[in-house]
Design a protein that fits this description.
Helix content: over 70%
Number of helices: 3
Radius of gyration: 17 Å
CATH architecture: Up-down Bundle
Strand content: under 5%
Low-confidence stretches: none
Order of helices and strands: HHH
CATH class: Mainly Alpha
CATH superfamily: Ribosomal protein S20
CATH topology: Methane Monooxygenase Hydroxylase, Chain G, domain 1
Length: 88
């Protein structure tokens, strides 16, 4: 256990950041799954809507260093590729 005031504060901050990061990663997985499900149903409108939400979450994660920007870009690209494979 930490003894200094600052060390205790860092422990509190780290826990707070860890929870926020987990929530964001969980949301990204959920939105990515929604895209995949819409693609499986051949529902282009729903897939595009889910893709938009997933991209927003991925951009936010990259901005806050939850994911590396290239990692977020790769995930967005793969999701967009799935959506673009649907007939128009």
């Amino acid at each position: 256990m930490a003894h200094k005031k600052q060390a205790k504060k860092r422990i509190r901050q780290n826990e707070k950041h860890r929870k926020a990061n987990r929530e964001l990663k969980s949301a990204i997985r959920t939105y990515s799954r929604n895209v995949a499900e819409a693609v499986a149903r051949n529902d282009r409108a729903a897939a595009e809507e889910a893709l938009n939400l997933a991209c927003q979450k991925l951009d936010k994660a990259a901005k806050h260093n939850v994911f590396h920007p290239n990692n977020a870009a790769r995930k967005k690209s793969r999701l967009a590729k799935q959506v673009n494979s649907l007939p128009k």
